[in-house]
Amino acid sequence: MVMTESKSAWRSALLAAYLRWKYRQRFYSVRVGGFAGWQDWLASEAPYPLVFFGNHQSWWDGLLDFSLTRHFGMDNRLMMEAKNLAQFSFFQKCGVFGVDLDSARGRGAGLLHAVRLLQEPSTRRCLILYPQGRLVPDWEDVPLQEGLEIILRKAPGVTALPVWRRLHLGKHELPEAEIEIGEPLSPGGGRTTAQLANALNATKMALETRLSVKNDKQIIYISKGINTLRGGA
Predict the structure, then answer these.
(1) Which of 154, 146, 144, 125 is nearest to 199 (CA)?
(2) How many domains does the structure of the chain reveal?
(3) What is the rounded CA–CA span in Å between residue 158 and residue 110?
């Protein structure tokens, strides 16, 4: 049984507006970086349909990815654990579907639903999921589950895009949210879970390198903190 999603334009717009306000209250900034030319690549039609897959560090991840994919005009859908979605049913009208991760039958139904979404006619369809299957601290090494490999095998025309997120405290009172867009994995040929894990780890390393050398050349801001004493700007 899958808690199927719908897509209400006005509800999605309301959520986007709420998040813009919320980010300014909770973060000093939300920044996105990536490989050379990543912005033009996402803005083009070439990579779609697309699977965003990444680490799952906090409950902010889905909201950040919603905002990022909406920023680039994507027709986004997001996979969420059903028991959590039941507590936030509003999200179901914004493209979020729920999967019962506690049963093999529920997981199988969720994967088939994800494949159907990727095969639907849509010029900019994007599926967001977290293949670790649960919240994982940044320092903990948890292997990816095999669900993403199955999706890509059943939907061979899909591009897989590794995404790494990090929330951290530093020189500002409010935390900073950093998102790194990794090198895309082209459609066709299938990808093993090990290959997907390697791509995700490479994206993590790219984020660490960007932060260590303070390279802002490929950066965009999804949100930038208010210039107050709280932000320390």
Answers:
(1) 144
(2) 1
(3) 17
Q: In terms of DSSP H, where are the helices of 74-192?
A: 82-85, 104-119, 147-154
Q: Is residue 232 part of a domain?
A: no
Of the candidates 207, 179, 185, 212, the residue with the CA atom closest to the CA atom of residue 197: 185
Instruction: Give the whole-angstrom CA distance, residue 83 versus residue 88.
Output: 9
Asked, for residue 229, whether it belongs to a domain, the answer is no
pLDDT exceeds 60 at position 231: no
- Identify residue 100 by its one-letter amino acid code: D
> How high is the pLDDT of residue 123?
87
Q: State the CATH number of the domain containing residue 31.
A: 3.40.1130.10
At residue 224, what are phi and psi to the nearest 5 degrees? -135, 130
The C-alpha atoms of residue 144 and residue 54 are separated, in whole angstroms, by 10
Cα distances (angstroms) measured from residue 52 to each of 38, 166, 218: 14, 16, 19
Residue 163 maps to a domain: yes
Q: How far apart are CA 179 and CA 67, in angstroms?
A: 12
Within-domain flag for 206: yes
Cis peptide upstream of residue 49 (ω within 30 degrees of 0): yes
Residues 6+ apart with CB under 8 A from 84: 98
The domain containing residue 180 runs over which residues?
2-7+27-224
What pairing do the DSSP bridges indicate for beta strands 50-54 and 125-129? parallel
Beta-bridged to residue 48, according to DSSP, are: none
Q: Identify the bridge partners of residue 129 per DSSP, sorted by sequence position.
A: 53
Average pLDDT over residues 204-208: 95
